[in-house]
Design a protein that fits this description.
By secondary structure, the chain is an alpha+beta fold. It has seven domains: about 1-105, Methane Monooxygenase Hydroxylase, Chain G, domain 1; about 105-120 and about 135-205, no CATH class; about 210-315, no CATH class; about 435-575, Beta Barrel (Cathepsin D, subunit A, domain 1), CATH 2.40.70; about 630-695 and about 705-720, no CATH class; about 720-825, no CATH class; about 825-1030, Nucleotidyltransferase, domain 5 (2-Layer Sandwich), CATH 3.30.420. It is about 40% helix and about 15% strand. Strands 25-24-23-27-28 form a five-stranded mixed β-sheet. The chain has a four-stranded antiparallel β-sheet with strand order 3-12-11-10. The chain has a four-stranded mixed β-sheet with strand order 4-5-9-6. Helix 25 (about 775-790) runs antiparallel to helix 26 (about 800-815). The chain is flat and about 125 Å long.
Length: about 1050
């Protein structure tokens, strides 16, 4: 069976070799023909299927092959992966270079070919015909017939084009929903006919086509103001839809009365009156009579419009236009006095001036004394007189006779009064002003070259004119003409426009509006999705177009909230904004005149010496502590150490203080010692120190009874100690047997008869308590199953597919076998003379992991290797190459080692890391600045964490981390010696370890060149491991 599979694999590898030779040959040619590009694209699609076939065959081979030869098969897979991804990458790069040329493949050649086939080349000698552009179709039934006829004429019936070229033009011509119809059809020569037939079957629906054309007739644009262009458009649109209905073999001979009624309802009042006059003499008018009338009417209006335009152009050359338009346009008015955005007659600072000061300022600023503006003199002002005396000045400038005589006296009196008064006032106010949103929309405006530009439009039904800003006019490339136009706002505030407007209004809205309280339905297509954000206005649309754009649908957003109104541009929002959405302004003020009295009181106060307080004892220590330890964090907060007195035990017994500080988890202590005497000393002194603070330790337990011989029986704990959380919350719990000094696992029974869903699997997996990762190969199976559930996109309570359910059932059925597993707690041998740390990392397509082993040598020269801890992770859903995953595993190993070394107190004479990926190993030994970003970032961190350690190569079959990447069932892990004690050669002499060097000829992911760096500067680290004697106390 395996020989047959190997032959199948050989055939697949031969196909890949053939594709490689083809790509290399075309790569050497530098310039490819269109046929070569198409052939390369088709071959690449076939090779992608080849990769799937290889994986299926390889999985079957690995399932039946002996374990001894499994590593050889892994190498086969790795070699094929490297060859496949390398050659497909080269092919895709070649295709990318020709994509732009292929995408922009001109229709010129096909159109010319079609022209030569249809009419012969002799008919077009000396004549250069314009290029026929390809039609576009987005799925609208109204445009289907036009698109079908055009495409069949240019492409489908063009014998000069190949099927693959026709398919390319078809895909380039489809947009929107139409493109989705053929999206699933394979892009091949044979797929073209399928795609075209699928498209025709979808849109050659006579019933729907007729329905849409009749709907369009009923929805013809209404003419509000008679112009020749609008009338002609009405006739043309009606004729187009009727011709389409006739092409669909519908009899429209008796439709005239209905069509006349529909068309007449779209006419403006004047044209409708003329039609009634025209048809009065006809007994039963026909549709043709109406068309003839409308064409004649359009010709007449076109003549009149031409004459009016010519006349207005001549008049513009002779004199400036003096047309005045009034608008509710909001213009920015700057105060002449305080320069803020309000009129001077609204300025509180100006009003607080004395009348004669106001008059003096108006004269200096050369303002009109009547309306307080600077664009005309008082004699020409058209604003009304003073409301008090009816004279021609502003009411703010009005002076009574007695005010003129007593103004100076009153000023002096007020000054004297102010000097006698002492005032201290303060206030705080919160203002939530009402705010009205105006209607805005985001539109596309086309310039004279039909190029679209995005613009923000303000819809103002109260404006008689439409406006456009100077910047928008320049973007559109419009021709500008001189004008003399006055724009009036509220209170006849006038702005003059001679040619252009720099801005229509200020940034609108003035402040951002909170949309959470507006209750806008999420399914509405807003005309301006960013109506709540401040931004410039490019165009103002007045009443001339506002009501044409308006539709009948309207929605409310609730009480004191704006109203939504449907328009041709989408839904616009306008109206009063409630307090929850409006901006809140809070102001505070303080006014005091007490300072003057304080200054005067200094004249009679007794002067005192400059006394400095002298600090003693605790006060001085507190101040010194503050000045020495006060600092500011990056988040801006200030931090100072509390002035606490030092602990006595930290000064006299630093070892006991270190145990209390580092070996407690909440109220549980877990520590140990090398000898019984030292353990008894720790037990005695820790109890004494904590008892002095009224903390009495209880439930002592140890693996040696002599350690606890001086502790009362009431404070002892015997038997098995549970580690971690409460047992009732765990699926799999970790325990310590004090008597045997072993770690045990307690697995609760899992009942598979209940409904198994993603929720139950996640719940049970989360309860597995394995802090050291000793069961990493078992737990990674559950992690991979969880990822499979996410990939399948199953809901939380949906029943699992059979394939996943079978794997989960097998996993849970075997989980109880872990109750038989026991692991020695002590990983360092007795009387160790040398201790080393060895780490292994590996990855597969589904997971990657790292494990650490302690290699200790006793005084007799015997070597002991034991598993210390492990960690595994599931590979990301997004597919990564195997070398990249191997690098991720190496980074996980580096982080795990750094955490272990920093948390323990044993010194390692040597730290060695092992990988079975030559590429990842070469990356780690390369300077990161020549590697690509993904690789460089991880290599930098690895080199930082392990710069004093060794990295070496190990064969795949000797790598125990392979179990973390592929997983082991509980029945398998118990008998897997390599997992618990590492590879066999780790117990041998250093000279019998795998070779140190393993070169890679063509290292991937390189920017320019490769630099290799070896480890230097070995440093000593302190690491604490499981000692010979240990206990737990609560």
């Amino acid at each position: 069976m395996s020989e047959q599979l190997i032959r199948q694999r050989g055939s697949i590898k031969g196909s890949l070799t053939s594709f490689t030779k083809f790509v290399e040959a075309k790569r050497a040619e530098h310039v490819l023909s269109d046929a070569d590009v198409v052939q390369l694209r088709d071959r690449l699609l076939r090779v992608e299927d080849l990769y799937k076939q290889f994986n299926e065959v390889q999985f079957e081979i690995e399932a039946v092959i002996d374990d001894a030869k499994l590593a050889e098969q892994h190498d086969e897979r790795a070699n094929f992966d490297n060859a496949y991804f390398k050659i497909t990458a080269i092919a895709k790069i070649i295709l990318t270079k020709y994509e732009e040329k292929d995408d922009n493949m001109s229709v010129h050649s096909s159109a010319a070919a079609f022209s030569n086939v249809a009419s012969g080349s002799s008919s077009s000698k000396g004549v250069k015909l314009p290029v026929i552009s390809m039609p576009k179709f987005s799925g609208s039934y109204e445009n289907w017939l036009e698109f079908r006829e055009t495409f069949e004429s240019l492409v489908h019936q063009n014998e000069a084009l190949t099927p693959i070229q026709r398919y390319h033009y078809l895909r380039a011509s489809l947009e929107g929903s139409a493109a989705q119809v053929i999206k699933s059809v394979e892009f091949t020569a044979a797929g073209y006919e399928v795609a075209w037939q699928t498209l025709c079957d979808r849109y050659n629906n006579a019933k729907l086509l007729v329905h849409n054309h009749i709907k369009s007739i009923f929805s013809l644009d209404i003419i509000t103001k008679e112009t020749s262009g609008k009338i002609r458009k009405l006739v043309d649109d009606l004729s187009k839809h009727l011709r389409s209905v006739e092409q669909l073999k519908q009899n429209i001979e008796n439709w005239d009365p209905l069509l006349i009624f529909i068309t007449a309802s779209k006419l403006d009042p004047k044209t409708l009156v003329e039609w009634e006059k025209y048809s009065a003499e006809i007994e039963i008018p026909t549709l043709e009579n109406l068309k003839m009338f409308l064409r004649s009417r359009a010709d007449l209006l076109e003549t009149i419009e031409y004459r009016n335009n010519s006349k207005s152009i001549n008049e513009d050359k002779r004199r400036e236009s003096k047309q005045n338009s009034r608008s509710l346009l909001s213009t920015s008015i700057s105060c002449y006095y305080c320069k803020k955005e309000h009129a001077i007659y609204s300025c509180e600072e100006f009003k607080n001036l004395a009348v004669d000061k106001r008059i003096e300022f108006v004269r200096k600023a050369r303002l009109c004394a009547n309306c307080l503006r600077d664009n005309h003199v008082t004699k020409k002002c058209k604003i009304g007189p003073c409301t008090r005396c009816k004279s021609w000045h502003n009411t703010l400038l009005h002076q009574d006779d007695h005010e003129k005589n007593t103004s100076r006296a009153s000023e002096s009196n007020s000054e004297r009064q102010e000097q006698k008064t002492t005032v201290l006032s303060s206030g705080i106010g919160k203002l939530t002003p009402s705010y009205v949103l105006l209607s805005t929309a985001r539109v596309q405006v086309f310039d004279r070259f039909e190029k679209p530009h995005f613009a923000r439009v303000l819809l103002d039904s109260g404006s008689q004119s439409c406006f456009i800003t100077k910047s928008m006019c320049e973007r559109l490339g419009l021709q500008q003409e001189n004008a003399n136009l006055s724009v009036f706002g509220i209170s006849n505030a006038r702005s003059k426009i001679q040619k252009k407007m720099r801005q229509i209004t200020n940034v609108y809205p003035k402040f951002s509006v909170s949309t959470r309280a507006l209750n806008i339905p999420p399914d509405l297509n807003l005309a301006d999705p960013e109506f709540d954000k401040s931004g410039p206005i490019d165009i103002l649309i007045g009443a001339e177009l506002f009501w044409i754009l308006l539709k009948s649908n309207k929605k409310t957003c609730g009480k004191n909230n704006p109203i939504l109104q449907e328009t041709e541009l989408g839904w616009i929002i306008s109206g009063l904004v409630g307090e929850a959405c409006a901006q809140t302004k809070t102001s505070c003020n303080l006014n005091t005149n007490e300072e003057l009295n304080n200054i005067l009181s200094k004249f009679w106060e007794i002067e005192e010496g400059n006394l400095t307080k002298v600090l003693f004892g605790d006060e001085l220590e507190c101040e010194n502590n503050f000045s020495e330890t006060m600092r500011r964090e990056s988040d801006g907060r200030f931090i100072v150490t509390l002035p606490l007195k030092p602990n006595e035990c930290e000064e006299n017994q630093s070892d006991i203080a270190s145990i209390i500080r580092h070996d407690f988890y909440v109220d549980d202590m877990l520590t140990g010692a090398e000898t019984i005497e030292h353990a008894q000393y720790i037990c005695r002194e820790v109890s004494r120190v904590l008892k002095s603070g009224c903390f009495e330790l209880r439930k002592w337990c140890s693996n040696d009874p002599l350690v606890l011989q001086n502790i009362g029986e009431t404070n002892l704990s015997f038997g098995i100690l549970e580690l971690g959380a409460d047992e009732s919350t765990k699926t799999l719990g970790l325990h310590w047997s004090c008597k045997n000094d072993k770690l045990l696992y307690n697995v609760e029974k899992i009942f598979n008869d209940q409904k198994c869903t993603k929720r139950t699997i996640l719940s049970l997996t989360a309860k597995i308590f394995d802090p050291l990762g000793l069961l990493g190969p078992v737990i990674v199976i559950a992690k991979i199953l969880l990822q499979s559930l996410w990939i399948e996109k199953l809901s939380w309570d949906e029943v699992l597919p059979f394939s996943i359910l079978a794997k989960w059932t097998k996993f849970t059925n075997e989980l109880s076998k872990l109750n038989e597993l026991s692991v020695n707690r002590q990983v360092v041998c007795e009387g160790a003379t040398k201790i080393e740390l060895h780490g292994f990392a590996d990855s597969s397509e589904r997971a990657y992991g790292a494990c650490l082993y302690i290699r200790s040598i006793d005084d007799k020269g015997n070597v002991h290797v034991n598993l210390l801890c492990a960690k595994s992770k599931v590979a990301p859903v997004k597919t990564l190459s195997i070398p990249r995953l191997e690098l991720c595993a190496a980074l996980l190993l580096a982080r795990l080692t750094d955490k272990i070394i920093n948390s323990m107190t044993i010194t390692f004479e040597r730290c060695v890391f092992w990988l079975d990926s030559a590429i990842a190993l070469a990356w780690i030994q390369t300077s990161p600045n020549i590697l690509k970003t993904f690789i460089a970032n991880r290599v930098t961190e690895i080199q930082t964490l392990t710069k004093t350690y060794e990295w070496r190569y190990t064969p795949s079959h000797d790598n125990p981390a392979d179990y973390l990447s592929r997983g082991l069932y509980p029945s398998q892990i118990m008998n897997t010696v390599a997992w618990w004690h590492g590879p066999d050669w780790l117990k041998l002499s250093v000279y019998e370890w795998p070779a140190l060097e393993h070169k890679v000829d063509d290292l991937p992911e390189i920017k320019s060149k490769v630099l290799a760096a070896g480890p230097t500067n070995l440093r000593r680290q302190s690491l604490g491991l499981y000692p010979k004697i240990g206990w737990n106390v609560k």
